[in-house]
Amino acid sequence: MSPSASSTAGRAPRFAVVGVPGNRRVTLFQDAVRTAGLPAARVVPWLDVLRGEASFLPGETVRMDSPGEDTEVERLLRAVGDPARVEGTARWYAGFTSAVRTVARAAAAAGAELLDDPDDVAVLFDKRLCHAVLDGAGVPVPASPTSGVAAPVVRDWADVRGRMADHGMSRVFVKLAHGSSASGVLAVETAGPGRIRATTSVERDASGRLFNSLRVRRITTEPEIAAVVDALAPDGLHIERWLPKATRHGRATDLRVVVVAGRATHAVVRTSHSPMTNLHLGGERGDLDAVRSAVEAAGGSWSEALAVCERAAACFPDTLCVGVDLLPSTGWRRFAVGEVNAFGDLLPRLTGLPGSGAEGLDTYAAQVAAVQNRARNNRATATP
User: Fold this and answer.
1) Tally of CB atoms within 10 A around 380
2) Cβ(164)–Cβ(170) under 8 Å?
């Protein structure tokens, strides 16, 4: 949080949002701001940040949102012309984290309050660092041989095979360290010598270039798996044990839980016939009440499941909102955290969980309300 937060105590928030003008994320946040009776948020384009032209006003509350879905921003950050291309995520990470720190410096210089901590963002967008932070805090996570800054770099498929063998892992997820939305993810499983396959949405063209596809496919030959992994490896790879997920009606099931100001406020169930439950890859929204009932019927605790998400978010105390990917194990009694997402709140029309304090509010309105509540608390504290 910006050191200038104390200077804005007692004032109703005036928002600025760093994002992509006209993007649905910015539009939904603007709707929430207006519904709360506040002036429209001032939009600061990521392009202005990248060009060194962004500025903020004294007393503004600055929210950063995803720089995605802007072709020119993608070109500047990744140096690729086609946003469907997979390569370039290491360059993207360096450019984006630098841009985030630029925003933080400009906000501090103007006396504005920042809702996203730049150090938190740098960890959230490196799966190796994020895994290590969660594990160090006692948050349950899948085992990983690539967790933390001291882990050896994964250079190619031979390294992946070696890590799997060394750690007794026959089923793993291989992920881009700086990927998102299942970009570059392979779910790899082995069953003895010569028997190996991978499930992925990555496509490789005749020249070896990698593209994200909306079609999940299986690769059943090791040379083809090796070619994809070898092409991904220069951008940095993270390996995690593939935990068997609970299922509903034959579909693998996990949850995206949004945590705002330390409290789990929203949850959506995601189900799929493939290991990847992302909705844009054919995953479907499931029945949250049915999942909650399954947890309780199995002797598990729904409140503890949400508490796991809150403990994960507590690792990033200076960032207002994160989206936690919660993995229920087979049997519905135990949970692990797959990932924590800086921009994991795009869940249109989803309203808050009962008892969360966000009933009737979408994810953006819950964040606006949290900032308003903090401002009211500051006013109460400042009143003699």
Assistant:
1) 9
2) yes
SS3 48: helix
Helix (H, G, I), strand (E, B) or coil at 238: strand
Query: Which tokens go with 24?
Result: 């649905």
* Whole-number Å distance between alpha carbons of 32 and 114: 18
Distances (CA, A) of 157 to 24, 88, 89, 222, 232: 38, 18, 18, 9, 10
Residue of 157, 211, 222 whose CA lies nearest to 184: 211
Q: Which helix (H) or strand (E) holds 264?
A: strand 263-272
How many Å apart are CA 357 and CA 359, to the nearest integer? 6
Taking a C-beta distance cutoff of 8 angstroms, is the pair 46, 95 a contact? no
Strand 14-19's sheet: what is its strand order? 42-45, 14-19, 60-64, 113-114
> What would the two tokens of residue 225 be?
């798996």
User: Is 52 exposed, middle or buried (CB count within 10 Å of its CB: 0-12, 13-18, 19+)?
Assistant: exposed
Task: Give the closest residue to 183 by CA, choosing from 277, 268, 87.
Answer: 87
Q: Which of 56, 58, 52 is nearest to 42 (CA)?
A: 56
Taking only the tens place, the pLDDT of each residue in 56-106 is: 999 999 999 999 999 999 999 998 878 889 999 999 999 999 999 999 999
Tell me how far apart the alpha carbons of residues 222 and 217 are, in angstroms, rounded to a whole number. 15
345: amino acid identity, one letter: D
Integer Cα distance of 45 and 67 in angstroms:
9
The residues, ordered by sequence, that sit 6+ positions from 331 with a Cβ below 8 Å of its Cβ are 246, 298
153-178, pLDDT tens digit by residue? 999 999 999 999 999 999 999 999 99
pLDDT of residue 1: 43
- Give yes or no for a contact between 46 and 18, defined as CB atoms under 8 angstroms apart: yes
How far apart are the C-alpha atoms of 303 and 279, rounded to whole Å?
25
Q: Which residues pair with 258 in a beta bridge?
A: 266, 323
